[in-house]
Amino acid sequence: MSWRTQNKTLQILEAAEKGRYGVLAAIVYNVEHITAMVRAAENRRSPLILQLFPSSLIQTPSLVYAATAAAKTASVPISIHLDHAQDADQIQYVADHLPVDSVMVDMSHYEEEENLAKTKALREYCHARGISVEAETGRIEGGEDGIMDTGDLAGILTKEDEVEKFIAAGVDFLAPSVGNVHGDYPPQGPYLDMERLQNIFQAMNGRARLVLHGTNDFSPELTKACIEAGVTKVNVNKLVLDPWHEYTRANAQKPLTQLMAEGMDVLTASMKRWMDIVGSSGQVQSHMEKGSIYNQYPSDDP
Ligand SMILES: [Zn+2]
After folding, report:
1. Protein residues placing their CB within 5 Å of the ion ligand 1
2. Considering the domain boundaries, does residue 103 fall inside one?
3. Domain with 260 in it: what CATH number?
4. Alpha-carbon torsion 240, 245, 246, 247, what sign?
5. Is residue 106 marked as binding?
6. Assigned domain for 295 exists
7. Residue pLDDT, tens place only, 161-196
8. CA of 194 to the centre of ligand 1 (A)
9. Which of 83, 172, 265, 276 is catalytic?
10. CA 13, 25, 146 angle in degrees (round to 5)?
């Protein structure tokens, strides 16, 4: 299918699986986030996935267009992904009207059979419009700023036989539940079933890419271990945004443009650090001739 060779999220993650590195899929809430993250990708010659929550499409409807414009003008591969889309009508609207490369069709709040049936139907809808699809097997517990909490629904670890069913449903990216949770971990930190993660990757056998959700509080070592186990799409939110949150809270009295500029520098540094950790730094081999508006702001720091 020709659309697959044009789909940016597919291309970015297939290259990552071949090269055995991870790619940050970072949640953005505003234009400073987009700008700082794209600057980091340019500086590191790294691919990047910019993610929006469905709530952003309502709260700041122009943000997806800002992200798309940034991705288009960047000299490294950057794709736009809609994370945790849980409403079938909204998914169809997005597929018909918005410039996204991929969507997480998250039907994990339904039981397995219904989850699969809805995922398959929406996957077909998205593929027909050139959009690649991520789905969640099992159920990842918790909530994040901008997505619905699973509330009383218990987390369900992904079983190996489910992998086959989701592959048969035609999804491109699979987000398993292996002890990872959304939001913050207990004081002892995250504990993942690494054997289950490895078995899932093996069962996928190159037919889809492996996605990691719930990375708050992850250490560089644990993140690298997940990539070694086969993860290519590394979803990040607070993990990379926390230094920016801390900076803006502590400096809210500064003039707005100064606060924005310094905050973006903090976030760019945070992104560069995590691009180095996941191994995506330097992976964009061919230096494209195309100029980039982000190159007007080169950053000297390592
Ligand atoms: Zn998630």
Report:
1. 213
2. yes
3. 3.20.20.70
4. positive
5. yes
6. no
7. 889 999 999 999 999 999 999 988 988 889 999 999
8. 18
9. 83
10. 140
